[in-house]
Amino acid sequence: MMLKFVLALGVALILADPARAADGKALFAAKGCVACHGDDGRKAMAATPHLAGQNAAYLLRQMTEIADGVRSSPPLKPMKPAIDKTTPDERKAMADWLALQPAAEVAAGDAGKAEKGAILFEEHGCIGCHGMDGTKPLADYPFLAAQRKDYIATQIRAIRDEVRSTRRARLMVANVRKFTDVEAEQLAEFLSQVKRK
Ligand code: HEC
Ligand code: HEC
Fold first, then answer.
1. Is residue 171 classed as helix, strand or coil in its secondary structure?
2. Hey, which of 37, 76, 123, 129 would you mutate to test ligand 2's pocket, going by the most ligand atoms within 8 Å of its Cβ?
3. Could you report the per-residue pLDDT of 137-162, keeping only the tens digit for each?
4. 162 C-alpha to center of ligand 2: Å?
């Protein structure tokens, strides 16, 4: 009876890849990511994205592209030394763990601006890739709902101006090309107030 149990436990541990599952959280702390992105990837510093509850495949691609310098807008400079000290396996462990954490609480904001942002989101084809209200992205695309307002606005401008110009970011340049900075802010106001279901 005992032997059977021990054998079953052994098999279960091998299948679950315990090193990976357990280490995402520890790595995120040990590599200094918490300093800017907050405990468990929530409560991020100003202009820094929440990572909790984000799509795992998307997170992993960003970490890889930031490490490789493919995504390299100026606000990423302070993060580069931290991500450079991670291996591909460690990034995968952190991405998988972060994706399982509950998303951040939404921030209260300006209802009038948010309403304008909601209309822009509908009229400019954002739903096709990011889902209704930014809550249901395609396979390896990002959730936008409940992300930090200042971070979203910066990204819309960076993608529009082709400062953030990765292969996938270029897919949406046509959708954002005509936005003014004020419209980028309205979109950010809206998305930062949408609760993640
Ligand atoms: C010094 C602060 C700082 C540290 C430390 C830091 N980051 Fe970042 N991180 C940022 C900022 C700021 C951005 C967004 C910059 C931009 O593009 O505007 C970012 C962006 C990201 C993104 C992209 C998110 C998205 O929605 O596209 C990921 C993923 C990420 N960081 C993971 C990590 C991991 C993992 C670590 C630890 C190895 C880490 N970061 C350490 C500041 C930091
Ligand atoms: C054709 C598909 C597509 C459309 C349409 C699209 N996006 Fe995106 N969007 C993407 C992809 C893919 C990414 C991630 C790019 C990457 O991997 O670097 C992204 C990234 C973003 C980001 C950055 C998220 C982060 O965490 O860094 C924001 C903000 C954003 N989109 C807003 C919008 C808005 C607003 C619209 C409508 C005006 C829109 N997108 C339309 C595909 C799309």
1. helix
2. 129
3. 999 999 999 999 999 999 999 999 99
4. 13
The full set of domain ranges for the chain reads 17-99, 111-192
17-99 shares its CATH topology with 111-192: yes
* Ligand 2 pocket, CB under 6 A: 49, 61, 121, 124-126, 128-130, 141-142, 144, 152, 155-156, 166, 168-169, 171-172, 175-176, 187
In sequence order, the 6+-apart residues with CB closer than 8 A to the CB of 27 are: 86, 90, 93, 94
* CATH superfamily of the domain spanning 111-192: Cytochrome c-like domain (1.10.760.10)
Residue 176 token pair: 């954002």
SS3 annotation, 56-77: HHHHHHHHHHHHCCCCCCHHHH
Ligand 1 geometric centre to CA of 151 (Å): 11
CATH second-level architecture of 17-99?
Answer: Orthogonal Bundle (1.10)
pLDDT the model gives residue 107 = 81
Q: Are 55 and 143 in contact (CB under 8 A)?
A: yes
- pTM higher than 0.90 for the full model? yes
